[in-house]
Amino acid sequence: MADSIDVEIGELPPDLGEIAARVKVAAVNRRHDTLALLALLRLLEYLHREIRDVAFYEALPNSRQTLYSLLRDIEVNGGWPYIQRMKLRSLLDHLELLEPESE
């Protein structure tokens, strides 16, 4: 697909590169504030869902050729974008590693 997006920031169109840079700055500025980072993650998840459910679905191909191009791009460039949530067990395991062992 001619309009495919490479996830490397240096390869992004300028507007998306700016968004990526701003999100990284926002994360760095909140690096010691768990609740603020959680809010940032929630915002990104919300935006992902909104883009997928509105703009992406409206832009889906209406011909076999463009559908084939889309599916080929998904296959070649790493599949469907997905925002994975941290599992509660992973969080608890991390907390256990931080606790000093009591004897």
Task: Describe, in plain words, how this protein is organized in 3D.
The protein has helices spanning 14-29, 34-58, 64-76, 88-98. It has 103 residues and is mostly helical. Residues 1-6 have low confidence and may be disordered. Helix content is 63%, strand content 0%. The protein has one domain (9-98).
Shape: elongated
| Cα gyration radius (Å) | 19 Å
Rounded to the nearest angstrom, the distance between the terminal CA atoms is 60 Å
Strand content: under 5%
Order of helices and strands: HHHH
What would the average pLDDT be, to the nearest integer? Answer: 82
Number of domains: 1
Number of helices: 4
Question: How is the biggest beta sheet arranged?
Answer: none
How many strands appear in the DSSP assignment?
A: 0
Instruction: Indicate the percent of residues in helices.
Output: 55-70%
- Uncertain runs are 1-6
**Structural class computed from helices and strand pairing:** mainly alpha
Keywords:
103 residues; mainly alpha; disordered N terminus; 0% strand; elongated; 4 helices
What is the topological layout?
Elements: H1 14-29, H2 34-58, H3 64-76, H4 88-98
Q: Could you provide a short overview of the structure?
A:
The protein contains 4 helices and no strands.
